[in-house]
Amino acid sequence: MRYDTVIIGGGIVGLATALNLLEKRPGIRLLLLEKENSVAAHQTGHNSGVIHSGLYYKPGSLKARNCIDGYHKLLDFCQKYEIQHEICGKIVVATTEEQVPLMQNLYDRGLQNGLTGMEILSPEQLSEIEPHVAGVKGIKVPQTGIINYKQVAEKYAQLIREKGGEIRLGEKVSSVSERQGVSNVVTDKGSYDTTLVINCAGLYSDKVAQLTEKEEIKVRIIPFRGEYYEIKPEKQYLVKHLIYPVPDPNFPFLGVHFTRMIGGGIEAGPNAVLAFKREGYKKTDFNFSELRDTLAWPGFRKVAARYWKTGLGEYYRSFSKSAFTTALQALIPELRKEDLIPGGSGVRAQACDHSGGLLDDFAILENPQAINVCNAPSPAATSSLAIGQTVSELALKRF
Asked: Which residue among 2, 118, 154, 226 is least packed, with the fewest CB closer than 10 Å?
């Protein structure tokens, strides 16, 4: 059978795209391919579970528009299908006077993005809300919440099948070729003809994109591992909301923070270190070919030259629990090393261009045979239904 579209990647973005297409075009012949034996096996399944409000993102950017829209779509979806979630709110804390102007800029950006109900907190107000946090000022963001995104993705998959879509698990794409307007997608188990390929392959999105392009694509995925600790149950009273630092505007990561989890418990972290394997969730995970490709990319070498001091600090925290604890104590001084136990980890697919720019916005590359989602890091899970709508609208123009 010839398909109207083949979607590569069974993470939350690929699933949301498939679901949107089936809702907008009932009867469409749709196949989703996932190389693992379950959906949501990588970035989605290792997500910290935060429902992002849209505070951080440049007004008018794809991230900002899709996060705000996706936030409301996600909450409606969860209410409709009774998926557990909680809107618990977030506190962003300026720990020094030097951070206050950056915090104010963040507040102003939130207003531009349409957030309501935010409050600037004095030290006294901060202490009332989070008595164990040290800060000179803060922002209360009521919209932020927590959820299990793997449950969301599994519901998407269920609905895709109910609406006539096909999902094949355990099939890794090896090649994509095109002839007379028809693409042939080859996996380790079969071959599929399609009018359109949609690439939502996450950590391998650049590799899959290259299969659909005649010229070299201008971005590479750089995998960054984030490692977490969890706070022991007897010390979880130290955290009431989600607690974040004021982020460094020159670095695409938010810094170590405290996250309540929907299933109970509190995560502390993450750091951000280069992973030596694209799906390298452990320090010992290593793939020579993938690491060589990362180191050979001129953009990565420029990033390394620019951020080497920051990178060394992140690696030091990776191997030193004391250093990790010290970073967390900037927000909660009472926290002690013995209060932390090892937690999980995730790997972020961060796109990097040839000049060393770490792409901050979502990136979607199109060619006549394919739509390639080449950069969809956080808040992609929150934004999934909005991104899925954006991609599906691009796809429907082809039919």
From this structure: 2
Alpha helices in 184-269 (DSSP H): 205-212
CATH classification (class only), 220-353:
alpha beta
Contact of 350 with 363, CB cutoff 8 Å? no
Residue 5: the pLDDT is 98
The dihedral sign for the CA sequence 100, 103, 107, 108: positive
Please write the tens of the pLDDT for every residue from 237-270.
999 999 999 987 766 677 899 999 999 999 999 9
Query: 120 φ, ψ to 5°?
Result: -85, 130
Predicted model pTM: 0.96
At residue 326, the pLDDT reads: 96
220, two tokens: 């590479």
- Which residues neighbour 378 within 8 Å (Cβ) at sequence distance 6 or greater? 50, 52, 348
CA distance 329 to 93: 13
User: CATH assignment of 2-47+150-218+361-396?
Assistant: 3.50.50.60
Contacts of 134 (CB under 8 A, 6+ apart): 93, 95, 330, 331, 332, 333
Question: What separation in angstroms does the CA of 391 have from each of 63, 128, 174, 189?
Answer: 14, 44, 23, 27
Domain coordinates in residue numbering, the chain: 2-47+150-218+361-396, 90-141, 220-353
Spatial separation of the C-alpha atoms in residues 386 and 370, rounded to whole Å: 19
User: Does 220-353 match 2-47+150-218+361-396 at the fold level?
Assistant: no
